[in-house]
Amino acid sequence: MKAVTVTGSGGPEVLRVTEVPDPEPGPGEVRVRVYAAGVQPVDLAIREGFRPPGLTVEPPFVLGNEFAGVVDRLGPDSGDWKVGDEVIGFRLLDSHAELVTTDAAQLVAKPAGMPWEQAGSLSASGQTAHTALDLLGVGPGDTVLVHGASGGVGTVAVQLARALGATVVGTASERNHAYLRELGAVPVAYGEGLAERVRAAAPQGVTAAFDAAGRGALEASVELVADRERIATVVDFEGAARLGVRAVRTLRTAARLTELVRLWEAGGLRLEIAEALPLERAAEAHRLVGTGHVRGKVVLTM
Is residue 263 part of a domain? Predict the structure, then answer.
């Protein structure tokens, strides 16, 4: 099969689309023929040499941690899945490939009407946003500040917070302000004077903040939110330790992913695809995500 392989730590130029052996599902596993797979900022960080807790892999290896596709082979004791089932799934690495194996418990059924590109983009960003808002205890009466509100994680976070009954203020570049209004957020621009702009946009005050952007967002957040337990970041772990706020790592489960799928089916979750690129253009996809200005997600298609 073809797969996006990291040949060494570095920039997008270290990526190669190579032929690697087809994976075979083990006990409790399912093999999926991948139709679409999202590209995450963490994929870029791993390519550059970062390793999240529990990951010790060294080049060459295959990137990607979310996907959507069709079940094409079953391992022993793989539950009720059948060959031909359309699924959304997740695993750590190996998803930017024509075939991927994963634990059968890390798959959910893809709605028939969900486009493949959206399905392949949902798991990582969606579950990251869901984890953070859950830990922050967001609910009715809250005013939530979402930094990086037009990105993949931010897009879902805005809509989840709104579905939970909160008012949302979202930071983004001005070209994305109309988009944020469509999602139900009050947009504010990045940059110097951010805290003052947020106060003007939310005179009632801000009760929680979620940072999916970095770039000094936590400093503004601690000015605006009284309870530091209700400030979280998924990108600025050094800032979190320095300021005494929450550093969040995604807690991914099929139950969490199922909840996101149900919200999409109910019309309460819009998934924005900035670019859908073929596997052979993986380096270009990484460059796009690396700009930090993507609206929604970049996905690879097989």
Answer: no
